[in-house]
Amino acid sequence: MPPADNVMEKLGSLAKRRGFVFQSSEIYGGLGSVWDYGPLGVELKKNIKERWWRSMVHEREDIEGLDAAILMHPKVWEASGHVAGFTDPLVDCKQCKNRFRADDPRLKGPPGDPNTKCPVCGNKGTLTAPRMFNLMFKTFMGPVEEQAAVIYLRPETAQGIYVNYLNVLQSSRQKIPFGIAQIGKAFRNEITPGNFIFRTREFEQMEMQFFVKPGSDGEWFEFWRAERLKWLQGLGIRAERLRWHQHGKDELAHYAKDAYDIEYEFPFGWQEFEGIHNRTDFDLSRHQEHSGKKLEYVDTATNERFVPYVIETSAGADRTALVVMCDAYHEDDVEGEKRVVLRFRPSLAPLKAAVFPLVNKDGMPELARKLYDALRGQFNVFYDDGGSIGRRYRRQDEAGTPFGITVDGQSTQDGTVTVRDRDTLKQDRVDSGRLVDYLRDKLAG
Ligand code: GAP
Q1: How many angstroms does the Cα of residue 66 sit away from the middle of ligand 1?
Q2: I want to staple 6 with a disulfide (CB 3.0 to 4.6 A). Which of 2, 197, 381, 395 is the partner?
Q3: What is the pLDDT of residues 109-150, one digit of tens each?
Q4: Which atom of ligand 1 is nearest to the CA of 314?
Q5: Residue 205 CA, closest ligand 1 atom number
Q6: 381-383 and 305-306: which strand pairing?
Q7: How far from the centroid of its chain's Cα atoms is residue 190's Cα?
Q8: How many CB atoms neighbour CB 85 within 10 A?
Q9: What is the pLDDT of residues 48-81, one digit of tens each?
Q10: Ligand 1: does its nearest atom lie under 6 Å from the Cβ of 88?
């Protein structure tokens, strides 16, 4: 495998070239670690999110969906512990004004020590002692910028679920155990963001909180670990690039009794992209305490009252998209020529097929257009008549499009077209009247 930087650089430039991901506000020099999804990227991420939503909400009778607002009452973040505890220790260089995490491996020596060098300007003794820095973005609500109106952009979607726990329970008439799922934006003023869309300041989470009776939490925790791994394997991610990491005592978040990360072997090393957490009754108890509202569950069969425990599955949509892209990225040798191809599972691919007239004459463009119009109602397809057919195939390989449909001379005679498979490069001749069924068959899964 080529060096990590090289792969990430290549993936970043492919992502821009083909319209997956662009740097935010690029014409102004870009905004640090904020990214925009282009025409293909938005489709890829949407396919991942839809798959998640289907498996969590539609296919299960014990999970309900929710879309809570990003802006929440500031007391939510006091209750959750984020105001006091969602902090990283940071070090400033008094000389060059750069800021680092206190555990930045580039710092050689303890920050604050007169012999420690700044990793950027190289001066000795210019680094401050570590200071705590809260990762939440603040903003102001109302017309006056005063302390009373300070609110936060949510750093996780989970809290929107906890504060709506009773609303959902009562309106949906669910019984414990049951879950609430949500997909939405979260914001963190990360200090060392980077690795493309891996760690960003604005990102999307796909979180599900499953409310259970205390005592059954261990069993549900294992259930959800198994379910999440199965789901990820369904995305077509190579099993040997996935592994579990159980949090040690020193890693556990303030709310967690047990936690596992699911890690992927990125070109820059093993890193987590999803977590399964046993959050106990921490969140609901804290919200009960801070809001003064009872959040107990009453089991009508036994008359027992308890604050439910929560098993959380928390995934990043952007990080999962990066996993899918890294896993799909391949460089092949085709007849002595290098080919870059994204081998997405067809159901995740942004474009399902591309339609090409072999040449722009002899009735081929007209027939190709007609086919394209017919397919567009069923699948996300692309029409391309620019450049040689080889170049058009290569462009779609880089976009990860599973099928290339070519209208050639024979098509205008007998109504058949060739369908090229992105991975095997085999071409089938298919009757254009059967094309929708042919593609539907191949795209399943
Ligand atoms: N509610 C629990 C929670 O938020 P987390 O481990 O902090 O847990 C969960 O975040 C997931 O959200 C991560 O596994 C990752 O996929 C995603 N995530 C967190 N911070 C991120 C960031 N700065 N950029 C992109 N994704 C992020």
Answers
A1: 19
A2: 2
A3: 888 888 888 888 888 888 988 888 889 999 988 877 666 678
A4: 9
A5: 12
A6: unpaired
A7: 17
A8: 12
A9: 999 999 999 999 999 999 999 999 999 999 999 9
A10: no
